Amino acid sequence: MRLTVEAGGLTLQNPTILAAGILGTTGASLKRVASMGAGAVVTKSIGVEPRYGHPNPSMIKLECGYINAMGLPNPSYREFLQELEVARQAGVPVIASIFGANEAEFREVAEGLPGASAYELNVSCPHAKGYGMQLGTDPALVEAVTRAVKGAVDVPVWVKLTPNVTDITAIGRAAQDGGADAVVAINTVKAMTIDIDSGYPILGNISGGLSGPAIKPIAVKCVYELYEALDIPVIGVGGISNWADAVEFLMAGASAVEIGSAVYDGLEVFASVSMGLSDYLERKNMKLEDLVGLSHRVV
Ligand code: RRO
User: Fold this and answer.
1) Cα-to-centroid distance, 73 and ligand 1 (Å)
2) DSSP characters over 138-167
């Protein structure tokens, strides 16, 4: 079954995309993910200046997923340029995840990283002071940042949204008003964990962002609401680890899906999601596009 899909201004051979932040720091690792079947790859979020990130421990594995507080570690766009060049040999679209403190920084990074197939604006990191959520919970700022990058590049611009808001559709609308080609939902959910022997919060940064199976129902609901509220495509992300999860996101309204935490269990996940999706479509005698938003048409 054909899995080619148009999503947010890009043509993908299949609807699975490597999510930002996972194996996205080098061109070689991005190429490797593409070779294992991802339809597109997203880089680690890149900013204006190099950052070492938050103190360790910065990532914890729980039964229901992971909590991370990496703290936007990245080498700066100047240093990342060579990695992007390598990643571009991957044969699939390479989406540059970028962050900044304001419109000017976002524009500087986008212009300084030419050659990406699209830009994913990270306005949603739950624990990076001065970046992430401070921008991503304010509709006026989201619109302004989106417009600034849209005016600076001639490829699609996606905006990654935080679930840590009362109404995600208000933020999605702001991105749409700023000219976004798609929204990506969701970034991680604010979370923390405590060591019960010492009483210490375990993460070096104290709090972080929860990913993995625990957040899948939250993400599905966000995608469902955004699909109803917006005219632009929604890319779904949050706890997808198999083809059935992907079907659920597509039915909620996602045009494509990003896979993050599940990658730590093996890069085979991209091919197995595609294969499962293809078998499902054949069994149901459906096309991929029939699945997108199906849940909105059955109730
Ligand atoms: O680097 C991080 O700590 C991080 C980022 Br930029 C993000 O967008 N989401 C997240 O959970 N961690």
Assistant:
1) 9
2) -HHHHHHHHHHHHTT-SS-EEEEEPS-SS-
- Spell out the residues 6+ positions from residue 167 whose beta carbon is closer than 8 angstroms to its own: none
For residue 197, how many other CB atoms are within 10 A of its CB?
Answer: 6
Closest residue by CA, ligand 1 atom 10: 125
Indicate whether 33 pLDDT > 90: yes
DSSP class of residue 43?
Answer: P
Whole-prediction pTM: 0.98
Task: Write the pLDDT tens digit of every residue in 70-89.
Answer: 999 999 999 999 999 999 99
Domains in the chain and their CATH numbers? Answer: 5-55+69-192+210-298 (3.20.20.70)
Note the ipTM here. Answer: 0.99
CA of 272 to the centre of ligand 1 (A): 26
**Ligand 1 atom with the shortest distance to the CA of 132:** 8
